[in-house]
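To: structure desk
From: M.T.
Subject: fold request, one chain
Message: Could you run this one when you get a chance? Sequence is below, nothing fancy, just the single chain.
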Amino acid sequence: MLDKGIHDNQYLQKSYNKYGKDNFIFEVIEYCEINELINKENELILKYESNKLDKGYNLAIVNEFRRNTFNDVVKTKLSKYNLTKNGNINNFMLINIETGEEFIFNTLVDGANYLIENGYSNGNPRNVRQKLSLSLRGKKVNNGYKGTIRKTCYKHEFKLIN
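Reply: Done. Structure tokens follow.
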């Protein structure tokens, strides 16, 4: 995939393209049973800290479904990249309906973390981000106990800032 320029890991692909094949070493570092692959891979990723951008090219650890589980730094970078790439939401403001306080966020991750950490939601961060995203786009979303909403969610109003 790297030779064809189609590797899923863009960070690795760009480095491979920039520095060339001869500057990379690919070798088996340990053998294990097939049912141990995921645990062994994650163990080595954590041991060598290869999921830290300054130490390696693993952007994530792997879960039992062979899907990547990204850390928060990578999630934020991917989110910002995809926002720019897709022309989606850049900056947005949350306005507390009860106090009138205004908070500006650059990412849905930051906005969702604020809502969860301040007790406005006890939901899964992914679900909170999804509701924020839909609300900012003016689509109807389920607000839990109060039916559907368009421009308010979790006791806050939204404004896009572009």
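Reply (cont.): The first strand starts at residue 60 and ends at 62. Let me know if you need anything else for the meeting.
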